Structures are given as C-alpha cells and as structure tokens.
Amino acid sequence: MAVPDPLALSPAPLAAVRRPSRHARSLNALGRFLVVILLTYLGLLAVTFFIGRVMPVDPVLAMVGDNAPPHVVARAREEMGLNKPVYAQFYIYLRKVLSGDFGTSVLTANPVWTDIKKTFPATLELATVGILIGAGLGGLGGGGGGSVLTLVVATADHQRAAKKARNKQCSRHGVPRVRGSGPMGRHGETRLLLG
Description:
Elements: H1 6-9, H2 22-54, H3 59-64, H4 70-80, H5 86-98, H6 112-142, H7 148-173
C-alpha cells in the first residue's frame, strides 16, 4: 500500500499560505499594548488597595476620631464597606475607581479627585523640569566628543580603569598597591613597578 503525500492532502499548498497584512499586524500590536496597559493599571490598583489595608492606621478611626462611640465606628465601618471580606472590598474599589469615584481622602477629608486636581499642575511642572534637565545633561554628556562634560567623565573613567589594572598587575607580582594616580604616589614619591 502506498503512503499518501501529506502535502497533497492539505487544503492549501505551502506557497498559498499568506502572512497577515500590515493592518492586521498593527491591530495585533495595538491589542497587545492595550492588554499590557490594562494589566499594569489593574496591578497598580491592587497595590494601592492592599497598601491601604496593610497600613497600621484604621481608616474608620481616622475619619470619626479615636473617641467616637462604638456604634458610630460600626456604622462608619459598614458605610465604608470595611465589614465585608477583602475580595468584596476589592471588587467595590475597582467598580468605584473605574466609574471615576476615587473616594474621600483620609488626610484632608476632601474628595480625592479634588486633591489630584490641586496637586497635578505642580507634579507636571516638576516632571517637565526633571525631563528637561536630564535631557540637557544627557545631550551635553553624550552629544559631541569634545564637550567639557564628556572630557571630564571620560578622563575619570579612564583613570579609574587604569588604576584598577595597575593594582591588579602589582598584586600579581607582589608589589605594594599604587594609591595615587599615575606613577607618582599619594605624597609625590615615585613608585617603581617591578615587572
């Protein structure tokens, strides 16, 4: 009995297999990017939720005060949903955050969204200045080969590497290590390297 050729049985020959179009590849990359963003956002939400649960400060006592009667504390705990299991609290937290309700700040007693709107301009300004300074120093350090900053960094790096190599060579031959830079020691005396 003759064995049939597997290529003859396949619905399409190998030459007819098409690669996805550029549009399909772009959509695939966009989809993967959005999944990564979504997972990162969920991870950040989980971290912030569990940090709030691990802190030694009881949010209910912070809201109502240490001297509040027990029935007031119990009612506030129920209103805040802290009497429910942790997984139920996390679900409620996710639902509220995704709907735009960030809750009330324990520290300022303002809505969190109000505090964010107040502090965001300063945060944006600080980030912008930091990026400009970092980009400027990076441009100076890596830009031209003849800039002063490049010369200083390269010289310091070269001297450190040369000193390491000399000390390694001296330790192989039993010669005391060189403490200064170059052939001169720390106090100006000449060190002879026996080779």
